[in-house]
Amino acid sequence: EKGGYDYFMLKEIAEQPKAVADTLLGRIDVAGSLTLDEIRIPAEVLREATKVVIVACGTAFHAGLIAKYAIEHWTRIPCEVELASEFRYRDPILDERTLVIAISQSGETMDTLMAVRHAREQGARVLAICNTNGSTIPRESDAVLYTHAGPEVAVASTKAFLTQLVACYLVALYLGQVRGTQAGDEIRAVIRDLAEISTAVERVLETMEPVRELARSLAAKNTVLFLGRHVGYPVALEGALKLKELAYMHAEGFAAGELKHGPIALIDEDLPVVVVVPSPRGHSVLHDKIVSNIQEIRARGARTIVIAEEGDETVSPYADHLIRIPVTPALLQPLVATVPLQVFACELATARGNEVDQPRNLAKSVTVE
Ligand code: F6R
């Protein structure tokens, strides 16, 4: 049932192009606009929403962090993202014009479920993004947008994460479409790019052998740092989470702009630092800032592992290891940038003799608070 793979996680990583395509299927019409009839929240409610609040845990929370960039950019609605376990106990400000989005692969995570219940008690509308048909969170929400990743067996989330991102982009673009924001042309262009994105994910998967080799060479390290900016920042957090849970290594994700506010003190000889570089076209200012971060890190002797777009040559002189990802619209980059980090963590776990599909102390769905 592992389809020839040693682990479910490897199989699920490989299934990502299909999972992404399946999650888009039937949701983009021939004219290139979105049809999300499943979101049974009436269009006027979506038009009048004054705030979006995203609640989730773990990897799903990282999808939510990325969604915030997309929602605020394409719709101009303020968006907050909060760990479900914190949200519930904070007395959050919610009303009938708040749209809450609860993201959960299993649909059974107790912290997220409690956040959903609390939000509905306050009168907010709740849209679930979920991978498991008929599970509790969608049943207790006003509406659900299912991710079509298929069953995810490995404890560490991979294909569910990519499809959560796709669903978040769909919701963001749909909100933009319904509300008729100024980003109309950009929204139509991104919908076209999204329709092609599974090919880009497939291309990343074809170039992963050097990443595996690199991972094996780092098996004896104690710490790995991950840096990113803009949507690359949550990608860095996700890369670090994967490494912790699978390789049992100390790993931290930082916003690259924070480096000089503390974390740079951690940099020393031979420390592996993974840097997710934003698109030079989409974010030229951020791109240049991150290139100087990479120089600073390298100047302190660290080993730089750079994830950058094809054709971005400015990073080459400072990268000890260069991982190429296809060119995508800036906001969609996490769909390709996350994949090498999943492969990296999986291979490191294997090299360290860990049980990849069943990491110690973890359960696939966390049904206690
Ligand atoms: C990490 C991982 C967990 C889950 C989290 C939320 O690889 O799998 O962090 O993402 O427990 O689970 P769901 O999405 O089922 O609510």
From TrEMBL:
Its EC number is 2.6.1.16. One of its GO terms (molecular function) is glutamine-fructose-6-phosphate transaminase (isomerizing) activity. The keyword Cell membrane does not apply. The active site is at K364 (for fru-6p isomerization activity). The keyword Cytoplasm applies. It is an enzyme of class 2 (transferase). Its main location: cytoplasm. It catalyses: D-fructose 6-phosphate + L-glutamine = D-glucosamine 6-phosphate + L-glutamate. It is found in: Cytoplasm. Keywords: Aminotransferase, Cytoplasm, Glutamine amidotransferase, Repeat, Transferase. Residues 42-181, 214-359 form the SIS domain. Catalyzes the first step in hexosamine metabolism, converting fructose-6P into glucosamine-6P using glutamine as a nitrogen source. Homodimer. This is Glutamine--fructose-6-phosphate aminotransferase [isomerizing]. It comes from Streptomyces albipurpureus. The lineage of its organism: Bacteria, Bacillati, Actinomycetota, Actinomycetes, Kitasatosporales. The chain holds residues 247 to 615 of 615 of the full protein.
